[in-house]
Amino acid sequence: MSSIESAESANFIYKIIDEEREAGKNRGKVATRFPPEPNGYLHIGHAKSIILNFGIANDYPDATCNLRMDDTNPSREEQEYVDSIMEDIRWLGFEWGDNLFYASDYFEQLFEMAVKLIEAGKAYVDSLSVEEVRKYKGTRTEPGVESPHRSRSVEENIDLFKRMKAGEFEDGSMVLRAKIDMAAGNLNLRDPVMYRILRATHHRTGDEWCIYPMYDWAHGQSDALEGITHSICTLEFEDHRPLYDWFLEQLDFAVRPRQIEFARLNLSHTALSKRKLIELVEENHVSGWDDPRMPTIAGLRRRGFTPESIRDFCDRIGVAKKDSMVDMALLEHCLREDLNVKAQRRMAVLDPIKVVIENYPEGDVEMLEAANHPQDESAGIRQVPFSRELYIERDDFREEPPRKFFRMSPGREVRFRYAYFITCNEVVKDENGEVIELHCSYDPATRGGDSPDGRKVKATIHWVSAAHAVDATVRLYDRLFSIENPTGVKSEEDWLDNLNENSLKTLENCKLEPSLAQYVPGEKVQFERLGYFCADSEEHNWAMPVFNRVVPLRDSWAKLDKK
Ligand code: ATP
Ligand code: MG
């Protein structure tokens, strides 16, 4: 597990931009873009790229960041994904304004550019099968073999390419290839495919096209058409850069984008690859793209993460050139820091056991004052009802307390938060020996939780008045995978074997203090002593509250960080 990058190295892209601006390159203009393929929902890795690209646009004068949908593969792309991408970027706090583009807007221009390459003798139509193209490509140690169709005349190539476009040939029967070098050390330069024939309905262009540009052909030209100055991408595209540059050299663009690669985000105990995430969704291992266990932006949002915590996380991990794995505990740490300030405190009992205060008058109810936020007076106070019958957490009682267990046990006095000192006198069990009720007494002189005679108690526990409690469903989440790097498993194993069976625990019949019934979907709160929770954005309502635990209170990052 790597440590956090220093702030210094977080800026290596900024340093490059600074130097270029000083040298007057592009007249000081900075234009970036975020180019998702709309074939899935965005995940936290994409957030890193969004924050980097839109951040640069915010940090330099007159700089822009385009949102471009790289929609060149109609068989996997959908409008639903386009919509979700826009929603997620806005939620993270960024705005593209008028700078929304689609690679599919350039299909005509890309076609014209391809014709130019053919005319210059730099591209040809190949009739080898996909299988053969692959075989002829060679390997890292062996040069490729030239296709027998490589020497077709310009006229024949133009004719065939136009007929490909006109739909005269079957899917997969021909491709357009760049004519570069079948012996190149870089495999990407061995006459890469630029166009394929594919009869698929595109989410924007419909059935207008039956040939589609390959990503490697469309990407750099789309950047150039938009006047992008810095084409920032992840390290796996380093090997593609010579190809992108080759294409740009063949065409006359005023501004040539400079590609800069950075290390993608890898996060422990999850997968950051759309292909893998699609598998989880389609095979119903999760409830959908926005399942609160998913590393998608939609999932994190539903779980209760804030945009601020995600931006803070991306700041801390920085931007570097070396691949590494970041511990999920750091992301959770950032969230805790944010919610610790923002979230009000409430009391909720997840696994209730009933307490009867025998010396408290039957039918009486009193309202006790409770602080909404212990460190922030401006959050105010609220009234919490107290009565003869209460619920406490089953875990806060032990009939035979082990050493160092200071919470409730027979004969021991403890503090009920904001209320009274209370002593357990009798344990009531059912026929199976299961504890069902605790009979207790309270000391009326300790109202508010302080004893006038200076008597001390060693524990303070939370509670909810039984008659006033609101029933709720609470979902507890844990890591989706039980190992750190599930996508790194050897190929003969199934990566899904490492799904954490206990990643979701649903608790029914939880007891909330009444004010929680007014929480609106998406609202966050700290349940005292338990963790941060979020009213579920889909299923929560006042009649049947549903809360998701975002994170427990205990912070494992602080420990990891020290190590
Ligand atoms: P995936 O591997 O999840 O399918 P992708 O790279 O195919 O991701 P794109 O839609 O092409 O998905 O990504 C859009 C942008 O987000 C690209 O510029 C890509 O480099 C960047 N990106 C994708 N994954 C990560 C990641 N884990 N960390 C940082 N940036 C990423
Ligand atoms: Mg990609």
> What is the rounded distance between the termini?
11 Å
Q: Which stretches of 5+ consecutive residues score pLDDT under 50?
A: 1-10
Q: CATH topology of the largest domain, what is it called?
A: Rossmann fold
What's the arrangement of strands in the largest beta sheet? 12-25-26-27-23-24-13
Describe the protein's architecture and organization:
It is a single chain. This protein has 563 residues and is of the alpha/beta class. The protein folds into three domains: 5-262, Rossmann fold (3-Layer(aba) Sandwich); 274-342 and 472-562, Ribosomal Protein L25, Chain P (Beta Barrel), CATH 2.40.240; 346-468, Ribosomal Protein L25, Chain P (Beta Barrel). The strands form seven sheets. Strands 12-25-26-27-23-24-13 form a seven-stranded mixed sheet, with helices on one face. Helix 9 links the parallel strand 8 and strand 9 (258-262). The relative contact order is 0.11. The chain binds adenosine-5'-triphosphate (ATP) and magnesium ion. Adenosine-5'-triphosphate binds at residues 35-37, 45-46, 48-49, 233-234, 264-265, 272-275.
